[in-house]
UniProtKB/TrEMBL annotation:
Membrane topology classification: Multi-pass membrane protein
Protein name: Permease
Main location: membrane
Keyword annotations from UniProtKB, A to Z: Cell membrane, Membrane, Transmembrane, Transmembrane helix
Residue intervals passing through the bilayer: 36-59, 80-101, 113-136, 143-165, 209-228, 235-255, 261-282, 302-321
Keyword NAD: no
Localization per Swiss-Prot or TrEMBL: Cell membrane
Length: 326
């Protein structure tokens, strides 16, 4: 059966252009658009997911719990600042950061510190700043404001998460059991090759996470295909409605944080600077694809609470910025 499928694959690869599929099947244009959206999201995300699971595997193999705890301040609020600093130097997007943070929490990092890294890394890293700087060359204040608002939002989200959840364990049962298995496995293989162990962890995590990436990309593609952007723009002209609509659009589109600034720049003139900033800050912190990826590792109630907290904080900070700086 496998050989038969391989033969079909290579035959289509070599001769697919000569087969008149368009005359054999009538495919609705909306399904073709959905297919394009789905494939583009998956192909855009996979390199960053691979990067994320590889870094996660390196953390699992080489980082000891004692080393991690030594560099985290005992005061839960002071710990927020080094967490933002760590996020600022991680050149990863929202897809890659989820397995990394999961692994750090398994290693003993406090929940709220890990969440600060999760929301700050995809937006505060240097690559995102440069892409935003380039996309908004006619208004460079957008790039600086994006970094400043993301910094404030990250600290506030971490503080609120600590207030509501403290250091209670929020990883789901499956992830907890996997952590126990891996811990035992590590103790039994101290003399085994670390490189082979790293690739083993990365491979297991990629295939475990891959199905959630595909599901998230499919949902994001469906929404992008069948939800009219004109409808969102019609209701997003007000000072209060604009940021909310752009945040909703950011959640739906599920763009990679390294590229979302170029999409946001296309809305300049249609939405206010505050609304565009809400789009640029909110999207990298949480989106449809990211939410489904988080459900793979965290408890459902925590993911829902995280989504609500990030949404409220970003919206409130956006209105504060509009009131005092615009």
């Amino acid at each position: 059966m496998i050989y038969f499928l391989l033969v079909i694959f290579f035959a289509l690869f070599l001769f697919g252009d000569t087969i008149p599929f368009e005359n054999m099947f009538s495919i609705p244009p909306s399904l073709l658009d959905l297919n394009t959206m789905f494939i583009s999201i998956v192909l855009e995300a996979i390199p960053f997911v691979l990067l994320g699971v590889f870094i996660s595997a390196v953390i699992q193999t080489f980082l000891k719990e004692e080393t991690l705890k030594k560099y985290i301040p005992a005061n839960p609020y002071l710990a927020l600042f080094p967490a933002v600093a760590i996020g600022a130097v991680f050149p990863v997007c929202e897809c890659a950061i989820v397995p990394i943070v999961r692994r750090l929490i398994q290693k003993g990092m406090p929940l709220h510190v890990g969440i600060v890294i999760l929301v700050s890394a995809p937006v505060l890293n240097p690559i995102v700043f440069l892409s935003t700087f380039y996309a908004f060359q006619t208004d460079l204040s957008i790039a600086w404001a994006r970094m400043g608002l993301a910094f404030i939002v990250s600290l506030l989200v971490g503080a609120v998460i600590y207030q509501f959840f403290g250091n209670r364990w929020q990883l789901n049962k499956k992830t907890t059991e996997a952590a126990k298995h891996q811990h035992t496995h590590d103790n039994d293989n101290d003399r085994s090759g670390k490189i082979a162990e790293t690739f083993q962890h990365a491979s297991d995590e990629f295939f475990d996470m891959g199905k959630f990436l595909i599901i998230g990309a499919l949902f994001a593609g469906i929404v992008q295909t069948y939800v009219a952007r004109e409808t969102l723009m019609d209701i997003g002209n007000g000072a209060l409605a604009g940021p909310a609509v752009m945040m909703g659009l950011a959640y739906i589109l599920s763009l990679c944080s390294e590229a979302d600034a170029f999409v946001a720049s296309s809305f300049k003139g249609l939405f206010s600077s505050t609304s565009i900033l809400a789009f640029l800050v909110y999207g990298p912190m949480t989106d449809l694809k990211n939410t489904i990826l988080m459900l793979a590792y965290f408890k459902k109630r925590f993911v829902l609470a995280f989504l609500v907290i990030v949404t409220v904080v970003v919206y409130a900070v956006s209105l504060w910025y509009d009131a005092f700086f615009i």
